[in-house]
Write a structure and sequence with these properties.
By secondary structure, the protein is α/β, with parallel strands linked by helices. The protein is built from 20 helices and 18 strands. Bound molecules: ligand C2E and magnesium ion (2 copies).
């Protein structure tokens, strides 16, 4: 074929689509095979061999366009691994790939013959469930959750990688694939939000919540631009004499329409969308600036400033540089600053987090574990943590004296802290009896509405020169009834020693009320 196309060369039409092959019959067959293989490859994810996103989308569009006169319903299930990043980071990417392959196999074992499971991207798999009844989609989701509860063996190690599932059922007349996928994604988000390793089915309430969340996110961006966030301070009181030894910085949002919004209503959204980094920077800067101002106002009166930091902030590459920069700019004593992290950071503590916390400690800044006792604690993790302070969660303080279980928990945390050489701060003290009991049990410092609510910076100043409570009568009571309260022998020894020797928490020297 001297003047024609070479054997087997594809011939394109005006639109550049391959329409025919030139060549001998067997060459054409061979090329057809190659093209089929190529299409098969692009239609399948090479790692898991599942159909790709585009295949699923095409099939979904096709199903939606079909007249579903037989009443067959469609459902879409989003399946996403919980903490897949942790698997990759701690076990390596090879193991991450093995987990994804196993995930795909397990999903394929769960689906029916008419369903399609595809890898949508990353650790997200999407199932198109045909002929769905009201319950079949949920039953399929539950089979998947059960499959993921079984450990996976990777490099000889058993790991459990749970998954969350979001389900959306196609409503009659619904023609938009994009909308169905968005609804399944919203349901997945809710499943993650409600604790992971569970499934959620899309409904209007979830939709309203997702909308509210989006509104908060966009309002928060404006709040950051327009300085609507501000900080209040809650005093931390040394129980033996009522002296304010520190304050906790707590962020608030003055919303132009909704008034003051508490952090619980916007910090989780900010953590999710990443705005927490900017919020955290503002809070850190403002609270350190405030501490410097107080130091100037009352030289010699040292005070600890405690700032809450979300897990996401700590792992932000610039966090330590930012901390250094703020301390240099404000000139505060690093030992007067304490970073509060939650117990969940401690539990997920990878070596990377511990290294970062060590680095913070090397700057001279202290670390406290917030809400201690509320998550699943591991004592070996606690031992590894470079944290000096345990903050006993308010939920245990609530039941102090009325709930024997809570009293026992507080007492155990205090003993543990003492044995590990850590300081303790009790949170949420609302009653005099609670403060008295904590003092008797050997707790050093407390905060709560009983002493003061979180207040504006100006209101802190007068508190720095007075005692916020008079514990003397309690001590007298304690020595008169030395068997009173839950204090045991070992603890009483601790209390006596501690009352004699304790300085301010976190190594700061406090001048005390004048
Ligand atoms: P948290 O760090 O455990 O702070 C203590 C919370 O308990 C504060 O709520 C405080 O106002 C409240 N509280 C203190 N004493 C009492 C009491 O006696 N009774 C009761 N019922 N509550 C008391 P707030 O200010 O609403 O903060 C809630 C959470 O929001 C904080 O819990 C903290 O986890 C988070 N948060 C606050 N500010 C920030 C921030 O700047 N950054 C980050 N990442 N999180 C923050
Ligand atoms: Mg806190
Ligand atoms: Mg707390």
């Amino acid at each position: 074929m001297p003047f024609g196309a070479p054997a087997g060369e594809p011939l394109a039409d005006a639109a550049d689509d391959i329409t025919k092959f030139a060549g001998t019959g067997s060459e054409v067959e061979r090329l057809r095979g190659l093209v089929a293989q190529l299409m098969q490859k692009t239609a399948h994810d090479p790692l898991t061999a599942l159909p790709t996103r585009s295949v699923l989308l095409e099939q979904l569009e096709h199903e939606l366009a079909r007249d579903a006169s037989d009443g067959a319903q469609l459902a879409v299930l989003f399946v996403d691994l919980d903490n897949f990043k942790l698997v990759n980071d701690s076990l390596g990417h090879g193991s991450g790939d093995a987990v994804l392959r196993e995930m795909a196999n397990r999903i394929v074992d769960c689906i029916g013959p008419e369903d399609i499971a595809s890898r949508f991207g990353g650790d997200e798999m999407v199932i198109l469930h045909s002929r769905a009844t009201d319950h079949s989609a949920e039953a399929l989701g539950n089979r998947i959750l059960a499959a993921f509860a079984e450990p996976i063996v990777i490099s000889g190690r058993e790991v459990v990688v749970s998954a969350s599932v979001g389900i959306a059922l196609c409503k009659p007349g619904m023609k938009s694939a994009e909308r169905l996928l968005r609804e399944a994604d919203t349901a997945l988000y809710a499943a993650k939000d409600r604790g992971r390793a569970r499934l959620e089915q899309f409904n209007e309430e979830l939709h309203a919540r997702a909308e509210k969340r989006m509104r908060i996110e966009s309002d928060l961006r404006a709040a950051l631009r327009e300085s609507q966030l501000f900080v209040e301070y809650q005093p931390q009181v040394r129980l033996k004499d009522g002296c304010v030894v520190g304050v906790e910085a707590l962020v608030r949002w003055r919303h132009p329409e909704h008034g003051i919004i508490p952090p619980a209503d916007f910090i989780p959204v900010a953590e999710d969308c990443g705005l927490i980094i900017k919020i955290g920077q503002q809070v850190l800067r403002e609270s350190c600036r405030q501490l410097a101002e107080w130091s100037k106002l009352m030289p010699g009166r040292s005070l600890a400033m405690t700032v809450n930091v979300s897990p996401r902030e700590i792992t932000e590459p610039n966090f330590i540089a930012e901390l250094r920069e703020v301390m240099a700019a404000t000139g505060i004593d690093p030992a007067a600053l304490c970073i509060e992290i939650t117990e969940s950071v401690m539990m997920s503590a990878r070596q990377e987090v511990i290294r970062l916390l060590d680095e913070i400690r090397q700057l001279g800044v202290f670390i406290a574990i917030d809400d201690f006792g509320t998550e699943h604690s591991s004592l070996s993790r606690l031992r590894e943590m470079p944290a000096e302070v345990l903050k006993i969660d308010r939920s245990f303080i609530d039941g102090l004296s009325s709930e024997p279980g809570d009293t026992a928990i507080v007492s155990s945390i205090l003993s543990l802290a003492y044995a590990m050489g850590k300081h303790t701060i009790a949170e949420g003290v609302e009653k005099r009896e609670q403060a008295a009991m904590l003092l008797r049990m050997g707790c050093e410092v407390a905060q709560g509405y009983f002493f003061s609510r979180p207040v504006a910076a100006e209101q802190i100043v007068p508190m720095l020169t007075k005692s916020l409570w008079q514990p003397r009568s309690v001590l007298a009571l304690h020595s008169a009834h030395s068997t009173a309260g839950p204090a045991r022998r070992g603890q009483r020894y601790f209390i006596d020693e501690f009352l004699e020797h304790i300085g301010a928490p976190m190594g700061t020297k406090v001048a005390g009320p004048s």
